[in-house]
Amino acid sequence: MANKSWKPSIIGFMCNWCSYAGADLAGTSRIQYSPEIRIIRVLCSGRVDPKWIIKAFLKGADGVIVLGCHFGDCHYITGNYQAEKKIKATQEILEMAGLEKERLYLDWVSAAEGMRFAKLVDQFTDKIRKLGPLKLDDEKRKKLTAALLTVSNDKVRWVVGREFSIIKDGNAFGEKLVPYEFHEQIKSIIKDNLKKSLIMAVLKSGPKTVREIASDLREPESEILKQLVDLMRLDKVEMGGVKDRNPLFALKGE
Fold first, then answer.
1. Fold held by 10-131
2. Segment holding 210, helix H or strand E
3. Under 8 Å between Cβ of 111 and 25
4. Which of these, 248, 139, 137, lies nearest to 203 by C-alpha position?
């Protein structure tokens, strides 16, 4: 049941050309909506960086809503299509990190839809009230920090940012890809990078053996070893001594 007395902290990213204008219309029309939202104007919903969203949660936001133009109305033609792919990927990353993906929401509002803007904000605020405060214990904060490292990874940013255009136009060889299959490949890349980020987060406290890392992350030792080999190849991790005849792994340069 929603706690009506609790006031959630909600961040709203609004497209300059449509949803921000819709919010302005709601204000000038005296249409009331939940006051908990803090609006940030951006030129396009497609420019909302997943890093901003995860940083908002790390800084104490309970929910993030992104509102852009309706399909076909984007000032930059395909910005809202790109936003759809980015937000979906970010929701999946949040879920992998142990957060409810419902804390991030994407929808569309035109400049003439002040009433719709107010309705969407009220509905999202009620949803966050039902979910309750985002209480970040040490474990969740560690996973969310790893999620931030993941969305900062160049490979992840490239595949997520290019998903719409690759599905629409095909790959470098002119081959058309099945959207579901390509998205599953992207999810696999994200999951793989999130595991690497979690390992690096664990190693921040000092050198550890494969068994210690596996125990901390509750992952099979074989999977941890595989990721450590990749991290060593990427020059992120190095051997850091021996403990009980088992090799220790440490962050490079620490």
1. Rossmann fold (3.40.50)
2. helix 210-217
3. yes
4. 248
At residue 3 the predicted structure's pLDDT band, cuts being 50, 70 and 90, is: low
Give the integer Cα–Cα distance in Å for 46 and 69: 10
> CA-CA distance, 157 to 57, in Å (whole number)?
19
**Which class in CATH covers the domain with range 138-251?**
mainly alpha
Span 216-252, pLDDT tens digits = 999 999 999 999 999 999 999 999 899 999 999 999 8
Domain boundaries, the chain: 10-131, 138-251
Q: What is the CA radius of gyration of the chain?
A: 21
Residues 6+ apart with CB under 8 A from 132: 3, 6
Q: How do residues 29-83 score in pLDDT, each as one tens digit?
A: 999 999 999 999 999 999 999 999 999 999 999 999 999 999 999 999 999 999 9
Q: Tell me the C-alpha distance between 226 and 128, whole Å.
A: 38
